[in-house]
Amino acid sequence: MSDLSAQTQKADVLLEALPYMQGFRGCTFLIKVGGSAMEDPVVVDQFLRDVVFLEAVGINPVIVHGGGKAISKAMQESGLEARFINGMRVTDEETIKIVEQTLARVINPEIVTKINAFGGKAVGIPGTEVFQGQRMKAELGWVGEVTDCKLGLIQAAVAGEFVPVVSPVARDLESGKTLNVNADLAACALATGLKATKLIFLSDVRGVMRDHKDESTLIPSLDEASINALKADGIISGGMIPKVDSSLESLRGGVGKVHLIDGRIPHALILEIFTDRGIGTEIHL
Ligand SMILES: Nc1ncnc2c1ncn2[C@@H]1O[C@H](COP(=O)(O)OP(=O)(O)O)[C@@H](O)[C@H]1O
Ligand SMILES: CC(=O)N[C@@H](CCC(=O)OP(=O)(O)O)C(=O)O
């Protein structure tokens, strides 16, 4: 290929992105990055560069991060066994300390530092400053659901062109203590509060598939009726259930569209948003 045609191809790639950039200027995208998509530091770097790119073209990215795998590892190092009920970590007094420490001292600062290193501006915001909650079930201990979001800090950060990076913990309205919140549910609550144009989940699967183990069975687009049918058939199970259920709730609450993408694919975010063919599963009402 001649130098000139290679250069022209680069221009074509940029021009394919142009209508998306024009359409999304000033829009808020809530991006949830799961612990399972944060295993490989090279891919995390690529993802965070994409976030800086989004911000640079006038989109307002807001990040809610998980950290389930890192929390389980920290528990193991402290001699504690991780236990889950329907995807929720059973969280006793000792566990909530580990959850808070892992999120506040390891995961959150890592994301903030990297965004800053890539030339963006990020600010870490503890979920307790944003999410108000209540305990879910006695058997889960200090696990909460979000009852309200305080948007002041997020809006101030966005106005100052900072990317807010929020951890999945909430302030318990009754006791004032910290509650451990499933990061998917925290992301949905915040996306709804912000009326985000898009809610994007980065996980460790291609999207919703008919057969987990066969990527060629990826389902590109889903609505409420098809989700219910797939759940009834047991095709959507485990960790995917809270993701799709809370996604539908967010859509009903005013979020524009939900995307499930594979965070292990290099530059998954840019590919999903700025190219004509998405790479994951799109959920709409
Ligand atoms: N139909 C399905 N398609 C894809 N993944 C599914 C499906 N049903 C269940 N899953 C499970 O959902 C998991 C993703 O949810 P989860 O583990 O909670 O991710 P994260 O840690 O990123 O939040 C997948 O790893 C997969 O095991
Ligand atoms: C209540 C509950 O289960 N909280 C989660 C919070 C982190 C999370 O959800 O992280 P991922 O997105 O990486 O799974 C936990 O303790 O693992």
UniProtKB/TrEMBL annotation:
Sorted alphabetically, the keyword list is: Amino-acid biosynthesis, Arginine biosynthesis, ATP-binding, Cytoplasm, Kinase, Nucleotide-binding, Transferase
Summary of the function given for this chain in its UniProt record: Catalyzes the ATP-dependent phosphorylation of N-acetyl-L-glutamate.
**PANTHER family in the record, alphabetically?**
N-ACETYLGLUTAMATE SYNTHASE, N-ACETYLGLUTAMATE SYNTHASE, MITOCHONDRIAL
Mind telling me which residues the site (Transition state stabilizer) is annotated on?
A: K32, K243
All copies of domain Aspartate/glutamate/uridylate kinase, residue ranges: 29-262
- A GO molecular function held by the record: ATP binding
- The EC category is transferase
Name the CDD domains for this protein.
AAK_NAGK-C (cd04250)
According to its UniProt record, where is this protein located? Cytoplasm
Q: What is its main location?
A: cytoplasm
* SUPFAM superfamilies (UniProt xref): Carbamate kinase-like
What's one GO BP annotation on this UniProt entry? L-arginine biosynthetic process via ornithine
Where, by residue number, does substrate bind? G67, G68, R89, N180
Q: Which GO terms describe its cellular component?
A: cytoplasm
**Under which name does UniProt file this protein?**
Acetylglutamate kinase
Q: What is its EC number?
A: 2.7.2.8
Pfam families membership? AA_kinase (PF00696)
Origin: domain of life: Bacteria
Q: Which InterPro entries match?
A: AceGlu_kinase-like_sf (IPR036393), AcgluKinase_fam (IPR004662), ArgB (IPR037528), Asp/Glu/Uridylate_kinase (IPR001048), Glu/AcGlu_kinase (IPR001057), NAGK-C (IPR041727)
Q: In which pathway does it act?
A: Amino-acid biosynthesis; L-arginine biosynthesis; N(2)-acetyl-L-ornithine from L-glutamate: step 2/4
